[in-house]
Amino acid sequence: MNKLKLLCAIMLLALFLGADEKQQQDDYRLMRFSATWCEPCQKQHAIFQQAKVPELLKKLGVRDVPVDVDAHPEAAKAWGVETIPTTILVRIRVKNKATAVKRWGGVECPLLTAEQYRTFVDPSKQGPEPPKRQ
Question: Domains in the chain and their CATH numbers?
Answer without folding.
Answer: 3-120 (3.40.30.10)
